[in-house]
Amino acid sequence: MFASLQMFKELPDFMQVWPGHGAGSACGKALGAVPSSTVGYEKRFNWALQYTDKEAFVAALLDGQPEPPKYFAVMKKVNKIGPASLSNLPKAEELASISEMEQQIKAGHQVIDTRDAPEFAKGHVEGTINIPFNNSFANWAGWIVDYDWPLYLLAEKNELSEIEKTLHSVGIDQLVGYYDASKAVSESSLTQSYESITPMEAKNMIEQQKAQILDVRSLEEWNAGHIEGATHIMLGTLLDRIDEVPTKRPLIVQCGSGVRSAIAVSLLQSKGITNLYNLTGGYGKWKQDIQD
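The structure assignment produced for this chain is given below.
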């Protein structure tokens, strides 16, 4: 990277730069939101181009970097050997009944419920994982889905095409079946739910030793501040570290705002861990209500 930037500095100032990624991408650090730039502007204002010492640059680049999503490894493989042809991928078929979906869950296959977290919390089919279909869907699907196993969806039929396209964008090509999410909950006899609690309710439970905290934020967020006594397991690594999850007391799951922790609760429930609560507002609300 450092060598590439030195070459970049040799380009003429008037040359236009059209970035391939935008702000928020996990493929870079502190990416800007402007759709185009020039070499001259970047040489003057881009933090990465201010370094002349390689070791100092490397230290600055790696400092505070988030954990790389698991699908990055898949991307490297696809970039090397080429992607599978869309025409050769399995076509997702609508399952005939909820019992068919329940059989797939019993067989250990992955079933993702794409509804919003509050709806999922009210009621969902046992063994399913909740990844809401929103702007962060691709990222968390890339972290959580096992690429080598068949994938099933509980989703709205009119969203299926966009969901499928989004999954393909991170190399998830094993989508084989789906069922209407709302119908699934009303028809299934194997449903469960979970509750959300406020920071004050959580504080009281912790002080009475009636609960413990699981923090699923990134390491950088954890290092910047966390609830005393909490266990830290980043959401994307939760399935790999499921044996480290504390289960002696009811578990309050927490992130920065309550969004990632909702996904985490669904992951834990899918693995048979019960007595779970999602912390409303996450660490941000905790700081506001408890620490301030």
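Interim note for the steering committee: The longest helix spans residues 259-270. The mean pLDDT is 91.
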